[in-house]
Amino acid sequence: VDFVRSTVVPTGKFGDIYGAPFFITNNLTVNSTGNDGVYMHKEALAIIAQETMRADFVPQPLKHQITINTTALWGVLEMRNTFGVGLSTRKS
Fold first, then answer.
1. What is the per-residue pLDDT for 1?
2. Which H or E run includes 48?
3. Of 3, 4, 24, 33, which has the fewest Cβ atoms less than 10 A away?
4. Rounded CA gap, 84 and 42, in Å?
């Protein structure tokens, strides 16, 4: 994605369409008929955490650094079934 702003790669945000943010992702189901897209409200999906995040600090004095390991159990839940619509797009 070298022809757009550099923020697309770390954030996935490509820009705005009709005032709504436009993101690029590959986290949609795959089918054989083409590419899929989705247009949804920000309240359509929610992140669900089953446990609080735990952090382990591992000091490494010879490297003058501390390694931080985190552990969490989470997932995504569909909160509002009518707040999004699937789009079929063409392959290029």
1. 44
2. strand 45-49
3. 3
4. 9
Six token digits for residue 50:
């089953």
Helix (H) or strand (E) holding 11: helix 8-11
- Give how far Cα 37 sits from Cα of 21, 43, 59, 76, 84, Å: 14, 17, 44, 17, 11
pLDDT at 62: 94
- pTM for the complete prediction? 0.43
Q: pLDDT per residue over 26-50, tens digit each?
A: 666 666 666 667 788 888 888 888 7
Q: Whole-angstrom Cα distance, residue 20 to residue 23?
A: 10
